[in-house]
Amino acid sequence: MSDVSVSNSLAISRAGFTATPLKGGRRFALQGRKDTLEGVAWAFGLSWAPAMLESVIVGDCTLLRLAPQELFIITGEAGLPEAVTTYLGTVPNSLVEVSERQIGWTLEGEKLRDTLAALSPLDMRERSFPVGMVTRTLFGKADGMVWRTGENTFHLEVWRSFGPYMSSMMDAAALDAAW
């Protein structure tokens, strides 16, 4: 009997590794000048925007700093708080909801780092990629974003069209890591 269960939901479960597709929530790509991003952080109730490649969680919203002029924002179903949308209506910016474009997984397990190492050239050890760090990278041939949410957990996002490819790649990498 196989130790894998891959369903139409793109879930993966292997010895030492699980990838659970995320359901719900909304995603926004925000681009703006430094002062615009600082103002958005203030509208979220923060003193400053996250530093490059860092994340900040505020209630049911997460701000991920992926570039000098970009925040990727993950929210609950309600979307962006009114204070944020009101502020953004007063300054130049580009805000695009990308919820339908993206698919995400929560990754866990003792073989997590070995599985990710087979997919990306990044060093996923905690000293190099601490909790809260986020970045873009290639996973096989898919461009994606990875965010370390805990000592042994990551959040992975790719474009929805890469979902089946990533699921297959993670499954194969997890199988190799389990040997």
From TrEMBL:
<dbReference type="InterPro" id="IPR027266">
    <property type="entry name" value="TrmE/GcvT-like"/>
</dbReference>
<dbReference type="Pfam" id="PF04268">
    <property type="entry name" value="SoxG"/>
</dbReference>
<protein>
    <submittedName>
        <fullName>Sarcosine oxidase subunit gamma</fullName>
    </submittedName>
</protein>
<dbReference type="InterPro" id="IPR007375">
    <property type="entry name" value="SoxG"/>
</dbReference>
